[in-house]
Amino acid sequence: MSKSDLVIVYHRQPYEEAMEGGRRVYRENKSPNGIVPTLKSFFGRIAEGRGAWVAWKQVAAKQQEKFDRVIRISDSYGDYAVSRLPLTPEQVKSFYHVTSKEALWPILHSFPWLFRYENADWNTFREVNWLFAEAAAAQAEDDALVWVHDYNLWLVPKYLRQIKPSLKIAFFHHTPFPGPDVFNVLPWRTEIVDSLLDCDLIGFHIPRYSKNFADVARSLRNVDVDTAVPVEDGMSPVGMALSEPVTPVRLRHNGRTVNLDAFPVGTNPEVITELLNGAPSRQIQKTIQEELEGQRLILAVGRTDYTKGMKETLQAYERLLERRPELHGKVKLLLVSVSAASGMKIYRDTQREIEGLVGRINGRFTNLRWSPVFLFSNAIPFDRLIAYYKMADICLIAPLRDGLNLVAKEFVAAKQGDLGVLVLSEFTGCAVELPQAVLANPYSARAMDAALDQALDMSVEEQQERMRAMYQNVLHYDVSRWAHHTLERFGEIGEGLRTKPEAAA
Question: Exposed (0-12), middle (13-18) or buried (19+): which is 57, by Cβ within 10 Å?
């Protein structure tokens, strides 16, 4: 089997599996938007049929000998290999559900009091990261680019350097990255940072996270900031909770250069517009409008995770109904809270809390003609979800901490500059891109109340002014711009990368 010029290492598989007539088939992801389709687009830009993807799949120990570890996929993104690591249920629980989610996730999101050390199994975490590195190295040309994604694969760069020292290694964080006071709670902090310092390029969504990493690295190792640059205006360099005026772009450590990057992943406004203009979406929009019967729709979308602010969103809505009885029968909250990681007590508890709050609010305020909250606990198909974005009067996105939040950008893209209000937590990464949103502090009940009141009472003229400005920002920082920017950074770390001429145009 030929080797690959680009190997993407990400825990999710780049397709959806289904059974048809007793045979397993692999289909393209239903949603054309999101991180998996975005990453797959790089195969056509760099690899030209010589790309590979490494992911994990849970496979019982007794079935692993017969498991087909490498398969070839051919879809609209091209032809590429998928190397699937068969992890046992025990490995998945230890590596993903316990060490990643109970130990690393709370620290990344600045919840150190939820950090759980006693259950963490760092040896299994190392073992799984080594398996990822082995699989990636086996697929890669000696001078290939291996692009690793997200925190649960933090040790892969170190192992790749041991297996194939000549590789170019890039890493992208989809989560927040905290400063030293929080990050250094992790007992394995130096091992993690040493691995990341083996990368040629480390990417983050926004300058704050890039600066936090540089500060962590300098607190633990002899690291110098070689180059720092002013943050561009489109990323709100001053005045916001996550603002940074200057961002480091190049570190020096042990004679090596480590490049840093801060550039947010975008959405795909063209795809969203095309779907909204199609006949199926127009029918869905019409149905939503009829079902609302003149009520104003508040939409909140996120995962069932304690970091996503769903509980705070429901509490703010309950207070709204308490203090403004004139809104009874005139507003409805649609809460889409999709299960995060199954089998974890903390997420089950979060789900129970959400369901309890929904039941309490409906129990208190429902009458014969009106129910104030509707809860979706399963994912809504993307084409239907963007129809809800289009019809919503307010989108309420209130995470306590979030790496970026594409939902906010999708809502703005769906509105296309028309009427609507985005209420956005100050602690989402995309807040620095969307300062025209009604910004709220989800830790403060008063701030949340004021933000909801401002959104509901906002004039038509102000809605249009804000939405048009945010729409221009979303168009500017779209997925194509992220891809173009990333390709430029890849070009800086390796002259041997075989990119198509038009990809860098």
Answer: middle
